[in-house]
Amino acid sequence: MELNVVIQSIVIISLMIMIGAILSRTYHFNEDTRSVFISIIVNVAMPCIILSSIFHVEMNENTFKMIVFVFCLSILINAAGIGLGWLLSAVFYRHSTNNRELALLSGLGNTGFIGIPLCAVLFGPEGALYAAIFDAGVDFTIWTLGALMLQRNKLFDFRTVKSMINMPIIAIIGGLVIAYFHIKPPFLIINLVDQLAALAAPLAMFYIGMLVMTLKGTKVKECGSKVWLPLTTKLFILPALVALLMIFLKPEQTIAQTILVQSMMPTLTLASILFAKYSADEDIGAITTVLSTLFALLTIPIMIYLVNIYVL
């Protein structure tokens, strides 16, 4: 991986986050504006970046095999991260009421908001496609293992299955069906999808910048004694383990690079929303999301530099 390209991408992401933080000072960032941002990103921008990747990658039998491979590997990596977070939280915070949250924050990354746009810049349409498939594995893990851990009755019911059906998942399935039957959309549609896909990175970074400005110092201090665990696990330990896994499996270079970058992503942006849905501690989710995103601006180039030296 070209470290210069990575650093330039991180600098651009940082500037976008700063713009978002400045924008939050011009109007009140409340639940309504938060919902609008999330809705546009999740239901419009993310599906379009997925479809754009599929439209610009030549699909064949080997590509479909690699897609299944990346999806299964994503679930394995996410589950391993959650398991590692659970183990460490049980060791360091045996009697804590936040063990479930700490475990999920340790394993589930922001592979959609940041990961897909970053991989699109670094590795082109093919990288963006595999990044989208990896993100689909994250979504699958969130609404299966994650939902099962957070809900009180511990049942995997129809509502859990229904919550797994979202626009990015529909875009992946629909796009792959179109690609499988070699259906070529009109140029007008492709051009529209490409332009809407360009919204993903700026809107996601603006959202994170606004989220940064909503943090209260008292809440940060209150949760600060625990968030080191998911930060360390998600930003350092899990990427190191994934790098060792890539050495062992030796997949194609683009796949290996994409999976490595996705494993380095900070905690998922929707953590606080997920926790609120299941009456868990949404404050620790929001604080970990913001802090991990800020720290990731430094750790991603460092981890990629180390991977370039010792792995790739």
From TrEMBL:
Regions crossing the membrane: 6-24, 36-55, 67-90, 102-123, 129-151, 163-183, 195-215, 227-249, 255-275, 287-311
Membrane topology designation: Multi-pass membrane protein
Compartments, record wording: Cell membrane
GO BP, one annotated term: transmembrane transport
Domain of life (superkingdom): Bacteria
Keywords for this protein: Cell membrane, Membrane, Transmembrane, Transmembrane helix, Transport
Family matches, as Pfam families: Mem_trans
The keyword Secreted belongs to this UniProt entry's keyword annotation: no
Gene Ontology cellular-component terms listed: plasma membrane
Keyword Ion transport assigned: no
Stated family: Belongs to the auxin efflux carrier (TC 2.A.69) family.
Name by which UniProt lists this protein: Permease
Organism listed in the record: Domibacillus mangrovi
Taxon lineage: Bacteria, Bacillati, Bacillota, Bacilli, Bacillales
